[in-house]
Each structure stands twice: as structure tokens, then as C-alpha cells.
Design brief:
The complex is a heterodimer of chains A (222) and B (158). Chain A is α/β, with parallel strands linked by helices. Helices cover 31% and strands 28% of the residues of chain A. Chain A has 2 domains: 4-121, NAD(P)-binding Rossmann-like Domain (Rossmann fold); 131-219, Regulator of K+ conductance, C-terminal domain (Alpha-Beta Plaits, 2-Layer Sandwich), CATH 3.30.70.1450. The two termini of chain B are 32 Å apart. Classes of the chains: A alpha/beta (222), B alpha/beta (158).
Chain lengths: 222, 158
């Protein structure tokens, strides 16, 4: 079953997102109130573009909002994203609404107003910048569950203290497990007696902000 | 006594007295409402992003003016919105009026919240929160209708 997805507002975000969604086989409709942006978006193959204000009921009707599985509001104005999601949820019965939000202080309020998922761009970006700045070793950090849990990718090099040790010998924090090891195109599910080798890429699941301590154990350093 | 007396753009309000009202948006409507409420003895705060907007208030206005964005939580906290009896959202943008009204209801438990919406189609969504909406185009249309009907009555009488 193809998912119907409606994107409201957003210029480059809408473009990148619709390209990726179309490639995944979703039916994508985009609403944008700038004529220029609409022309740019219309170049995307298999993407329906509607020029108009996505916070107006008749524009949403034109976009057939009631047939949408997911609505994502991407404008730069918090109030427009909230109103678009509320209209889609309450008036058009859309099951899943997602809003971008600039002001992190309004996250709980947006949830209380019935938006299903709130993505605060500023805190998401600052979180990533902070992690990248402090932890050079990490190649990839993905926050999930509002940043309570992080999935971290770590590459082990020859001089790291964890090399040639079995996993049970490494004193990892309680909230951290090694979920998976990538070794030369092979995926290993590690056990306590699995020995770590140089060149392994470990995928860690970390709770409670413990990734720093896990890294200290695996890669050493101050 | 509910006839509208206009001083300098001020409306005479005949509501309850000595409450605290926050008005967001100091356009002609916002300034008029603030003037009227202040003249009635209410405590009034008007919020607007544009300092020049406060020039629309009459010289008799003695309430507070706060320069800032009415959607900003810090601004709403700084005017102690939780102590207000009424919030009136009358900026020139519907969606701003909606979000401010919803914040007032949801986060500050303001009893009476009134929003101006230029597009009546959106009002259905917000009424269930207990937000009162006024729609100038609907009011104007009703008035035009009234005048037209009144005129035809006169014509038919003549």
C-alpha cells in the first residue's frame, strides 16, 4: 500500500524530503505559497505541487488532505505549522501529523494541541553539533526517543585499549550495550566472549548520556 | 448604555470592571479595545512587536505597553498572563492569533480568550478549546445585510 504524504511549506527541506519519499515509493503532494518555489518543486518527478497557503482549509481540500496518511508541516513559522497540523488532524482526520518547531519551549504545548510528532529543529541541530564537537571519535550519532537514547557508531583502531579484548572484559556503563559489530562486510551479533579487533565498527545503544563513558572504555583518552 | 462612544478611536466597553486584560496586537482594533478597557477601569497590557504601533493608543491611555512578540513564552510570562481574566488576540495574522489564544488557554488557564480571525473557515477547529472568535468579514456582511434589509423596508413603506 503506497503511503500518501503531504508536505506543507519548506523550500529545500520539502525538495529533499519529497525526493527521498518518492524514491521510497510514497505518493507525495507538496503545498507551497511561493510560486517560485513551486516551480522548483514541480521539477521533481511524480510529485504533485499546489501553490497556496497550507493553513487554509480550501487549499488543503484541493490537496485532498483527507486522503493523506501523513502530513508534515515544514514552514519557518511555528504558528503556521501548528495551524496546518491542527486543521489536518481535526478537520481532515489525518492520522499522523508532524510539525517542525523553532522554539524548543513550545514542544510540550504542540503535543498538547494534538500534533503527533514535534521536531524541534534548533535543539536537534544543536544536539548534533555538540556531540560532533566533543566526540571526534564518533562517526555517527543518532538520537532517538527525544534524545534519551543514542545509537552510536564507533570505529576501533589498532592502538585502542579495547582491541583484542573480549567484551566481558570491557567495563562498559550499565546503560550501554554493543548491539552489533561490523567486521569486513559481515554483521556480528556480539556475545560476551566476542573479541574486538582493529577495524571493527561497533554500533552502541546508549541510554542516560553514557556514550562518553563507553567511548572512554573502548578508545581510551581523557 | 451600550452605544459605542468614540473618543479618539476608543470603544466604550460595557463589561465587568476591574479585571486584568492582555491585548496582543496594537493595530487599530487592538488600540481601540485597550483604550476602551482602560477607560472602564480595567488593568490593561498591550503587546506589540513594533514600538510605533503604540502611537495608535489615545493620549489618555494609562495602561502598560510591552514591546515584544506575543507568541514568545517569556513575554507572556513577563506580563503574568496567568493572572489575566481575559486575553484578546488581534494581530493582523490569523495563525498568530490562534497560537497565542491556544497558549493562553492551555498554558496559562486564561478564562476568557478572544481571537480575531479574518478567515472564518478556520474557526471550527478552535471553538472546542473554548476560544471565542470574531470574524470581521462575517460581522460586516451581517451589517450590510441588515442595512440592505432595512433599506428595502423603508422603500416598501414609502
Amino acid at each position: 500500500m503506497k503511503k500518501n504524504i503531504l508536505l506543507i511549506g519548506g523550500r529545500s527541506k520539502a525538495k529533499a524530503l519529497s525526493l527521498s519519499l518518492v524514491a521510497k515509493g510514497c505518493r507525495v503532494t507538496v503545498i507551497n505559497n511561493s510560486h517560485e518555489d513551486c516551480q522548483m518543486l514541480a521539477d521533481i518527478d511524480k510529485c504533485t505541487v499546489i501553490c497556496g497557503d497550507g493553513t487554509k482549509p480550501y487549499v488543503l481540500e484541493d490537496a485532498d488532505a483527507s486522503s493523506m496518511d501523513i502530513v508534515i508541516a515544514l514552514t519557518n513559522a511555528d504558528e503556521d505549522n501548528l495551524v496546518a497540523c491542527q486543521l489536518c488532524g481535526k478537520r481532515f482526520g489525518v492520522k499522523r501529523t508532524i510539525a517542525l518547531l523553532n522554539d524548543p519551549k513550545k514542544t510540550d504545548f504542540f503535543y498538547a494541541m494534538g500534533v503527533d510528532r514535534v521536531i524541534c529543529t534548533i535543539s536537534a541541530v544543536t544536539d548534533i553539533i555538540e556531540q560532533q564537537a566533543f566526540m571526534e571519535e564518533m562517526t555517527n550519532v543518532i538520537p532517538i526517543s527525544d534524545g534519551k537514547i543514542h545509537i552510536v557508531e564507533v570505529e576501533i583502531s589498532q592502538e585502542d585499549p579495547s582491541v583484542s579484548r573480549q567484551i566481558w572484559e570491557i567495563n562498559l556503563p550499565k546503560e550501554v550495550i554493543i548491539g552489533c559489530i561490523l567486521r569486513q562486510n559481515q554483521t556480528l551479533i556480539p556475545r560476551g566472549n566476542t573479541r574486538i579487533r582493529a577495524g571493527d565498527i561497533l554500533v552502541l545503544i546508549c541510554g542516560g548520556g553514557q556514550e562518553k563513558y563507553a567511548l572512554l572504555e573502548l578508545k581510551g583518552g581523557a | 448604555m451600550n452605544r459605542i462612544a468614540t473618543g479618539k478611536g476608543g470603544c466604550k466597553m460595557t463589561g465587568k470592571k476591574h479585571g486584568y486584560t492582555v491585548v496582543v496586537g496594537c493595530g487599530r482594533l487592538g488600540a481601540g479595545i485597550a483604550d476602551g478597557l482602560y477607560a472602564e477601569g480595567e488593568d490593561v497590557v498591550v503587546i506589540d512587536q513594533d514600538r510605533d504601533a503604540f502611537r495608535k493608543l489615545s493620549s489618555a491611555y494609562g495602561g502598560l505597553t510591552v514591546e515584544g512578540n506575543g507568541m514568545d513564552l517569556e513575554i507572556l510570562k513577563s506580563v503574568q498572563l496567568e493572572k489575566a481574566d481575559t486575553l484578546i488576540a488581534v494581530t493582523d495574522r490569523d495563525n498568530v492569533n490562534i497560537i497565542v489564544s491556544e497558549m493562553a488557554k492551555q498554558m496559562f488557564n486564561v478564562t476568557k480568550v478572544i481571537a480575531r480571525l479574518s478567515d472564518p473557515q478556520r474557526s471550527c477547529v478552535y471553538q472546542q478549546l473554548g476560544i471565542e472568535t470574531i470574524c470581521p468579514s462575517v460581522l460586516s456582511a451581517r451589517q450590510v445585510d441588515h442595512i440592505l434589509n432595512h433599506d428595502t423596508e423603508l422603500i416598501s413603506e414609502a
